[in-house]
Amino acid sequence: MSTTAPTPLDVHLEHRFADALPELAMAWQAEDVPAATLLTLNEEHALELGLDPAHLRSPAGLGLLTGTVVPAGATPVAQAYAGHQFGGWSPRLGDGRALLLGELALPDGRMRDLHLKGSGRTPFARGGDGLAAVGPMLREHVVSEALHHLGIPTTRALAVVATGREVRRETLLPGALLARTAASHLRVGSFQYARSLGDPALLRRLADQAIDRHHPDARTAERPYLALLEAVTAAQAALVAQWMLVGFVHGVLNTDNVTISGETIDYGPCAFLDAYDPATSFSSIDEGGRYAYGQQPTVTLWNLARLAEALLPLIDDDEEQAVALATASLEGYSATYTARLDAGMRRKLGLPEGLADDVANALAADLLALMRETGVDHTSFWRRLSAAARGDAEPARAMVLDLAAFDAWCERWRAVDPDPAVMDRHNPVYVPRNHLVEEALTAATGGDLGPVRTLIDVLAAPYDERPGLERFAQPDPDGGAGFRTFCGT
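Below the sequence we write its predicted structure tokens.
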């Protein structure tokens, strides 16, 4: 490597969070990187951000992507927040191995955080080393891009850069940094931390930042901070419904991983369903199944209740009245979640508009019960139903054990004339199947990035069946039994 420091890219990074909320922002610098090597670059997203992919591949670009060479005027900070982790209160968490480099103003006027993960220890690191390994950083790239192309709100990976440093976990692993973007990194834990400091002015400034950045309609409401709670509740209800429809299991839904924007964030022990079972939990640290697939709607509401508690002083000066208003607001969660889930199930089943709700809901509930009883592969079964709508039920029928029950259900469903074209647009062929992700990450850890790049390309068009990609649509030959995911910290 050259000993001459590269000139920073001509990129303007704003520092609105650091300026508005200095109590939640600790100025910090990324650790030096011994030997930066670009592993993946999301060129499509770079262009959306107004960044030149060629420049990002240059020494100056690698400096930006690792935080070692930042633009003039930028103020990298580690963010402070608190959180409930597996139900237990942690009063001070924060970015232990991450930095907010600043905010990018997109060509369309939106703001987007530019954020690093694995950039070294910060004062929030506690006992961690502040570093990250190649596998977990590439996992976030692969799975976050998969969710983006499935149409689900998410933070997005911009790049993964190998650091040339070894990271000690169970064994020594090659180190890496992730550069990602987000609508913001404001989270439920941000509000919990601000409330815990006992500073009403800080809590109000934080809430005003969230309103201005994400939910501006709340500003003109009679009670703006109650309207903020309602907006976040609706956004999270819609997000979790989308997860449930595609079989995504986040794995670590602590309050510090619940965004105010309604984006999916922090892809640690995440995975997708193999066999359909609401009790599915992949995370090695989720021993009680708190964050199992079927628990996600309930635990998200629990997390939103913690946000409501933090906002009480802003909702009303009378605490009893504030509690009553917040409780009534949270009651809207179930209605929003159910409406989004039911609408999505109608599309997955290709049901016609105008079909009575009781008929649609019964068809969906009975099918899910049949899927659970058999443990069918979630993604494959839904996609094969399209063939059944076209007259060939055998591909789906072959996956179930109770043929009589399936035949009876199929007869009821076909009687309402489902539209297979609608089904094809809402039942993906390709998701990041766990065995394929692990296969690609293992190869990448050994230096072969080909499988990761291929997987990213396949997942960029998840609803379009393409010849030659059959293995990417097939279930795990071993059925996914015993599959476990890890946080990667």
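Residues 224-246 form the longest helix (23 residues).
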